[in-house]
Each structure stands twice: as C-alpha cells, then as structure tokens.
Amino acid sequence: MPDAQECFAHVPTTAIADVAVLLGLSLIMEGLQPLEPLTSAHVAAPATTLRFVPAQDPARPRVSLYDVLEDIAPGSCLVVAAGGQPLAVLGANGARVAARRGAVSAVVDGAVRDVRALQALGLQVWRRSVRPLAYTRRLECVARDVPVTCGGVQVAPGDLIVADADGVAVVPQGRAAEIRERAAAVLAMEEAFTQGFHRGESAKVLVGMKQRLFDGS
C-alpha cells in the first residue's frame, strides 16, 4: 500500500478514530501509549506481527525472537501481541536487531524495558507498560506474520499501523481506500471548523456542522 502509506503518514490517529465511529469499525488500540509522552513522531508502516503466549509445553516448537527480528522487512512496524501481559517482550537487544533491519516502529501489547536504550536507538515505540521483568520462562513467541489481536484490535500482516502522540490506529489493507476517503472528509471538516472558529462563527453552528458529518447528512 505505498500510496496509502504516504497518505496516512499525514493523517492523525484522531481522524482515523472518527472514521472508525462513522463506519462502525474497531480501529483504535486500547491502552497503548507512546514510550515518549507527547511525542512529535507520526509513523505509518505495514505490520509485521509476533504472537506471544504463556509458556506451557517445553516440547512445543518455539519461534526464536531474534531470528524473527533478523528477518523483518525494512520499513515495518513490529506489532507484538502479548495479551497485555506485564512482562517485557521488547528490550534493548531485540530493539537493536529490529532497528538494524530497518524497522521504523514497534507497537507492544505488553511491557517494554531498557527505556533509555530504546530512546537512543530512535525506534519509535508504543507500549502498554514499562517493566524491567523480562518474559523469559513465562511467555514464548509462537508465531510470526499471522493475524493477531493487539490492544483489542485485529491486525493482519501488512495492515497499516498509524501511530502518534494520541495512540495507535490500524488501517486494514482491504479498507484502506475507504478509510482514506472518509479521513479526508473528516480533516476537511476539521479545517472548516477551525477557520469558522477564527472568523468568530457561532460554536453551535460549528458543532452542528460536525454532527452532520457523523449523521451522514
């Protein structure tokens, strides 16, 4: 989705959230925040997914986290589905490998650690929590590039992940054009609202204009 990726690089997650309401879709991850609060970063990148589950069967084949990270495509967003577990599934070593491979961002439904090192790498990270306790012996990586649930939202490999200071949005590949069109309408309405406000127009009139967008009138 090169064209969509370029477009959504300039679309805030708030606009995608409004589109989600308009279309009745679940597109906004719950509980994930940027590692650096109030970050100025805005990323739009295709998802490479990882799925972690509680470690149970020692005989079950496991996926090597570092092998996976060495094999991700440049320009990807690493989406780590760890079920919100308060265990660090991304730290300095894993982030270094991902950054070396050209990953631009990571979205972690779980904990991260080594915060200073992550910040120094320049890899943009959104996470549920920060905790020094690693996942070793408690969780295991069992799959890569499979559909996952991250922050309560379904993510398929290749879906576009858009993230900024407000949070994380998912743009499914099959609905990218529709979401892009609706987002353009939302942004146009927001610009009209702002311009009307600066002209001194009635707040009631402006709010009514916004409501009509959601009512479809």
Give a brief outline of the structure.
The protein has 217 residues and is an alpha/beta fold.
CA-based shape: elongated
Number of E strands: 10
Strand percentage, roughly? 25-35%
- How far is the N terminus from the C terminus? 31 Å
State the CATH architecture of the largest domain: 3-Layer(bba) Sandwich
Q: What is the alpha-carbon Rg in Å?
A: 19 Å
Structural account:
The protein is α/β, with parallel strands linked by helices and 217 residues long. The protein folds into 2 domains: 2-172, 3-Layer(bba) Sandwich (Glucose Oxidase, domain 1); 179-215, no CATH class. 35% of the residues lie in helices and 30% in strands. The protein has 7 helices and 10 strands. The strands form 2 sheets. Strands 1, 2, 3, 4, 5, 6, 9 and 10 form an 8-stranded mixed β-sheet that branches. Strands 7-8 form a two-stranded antiparallel ribbon. β2, α3 and β3 form a beta-alpha-beta unit.
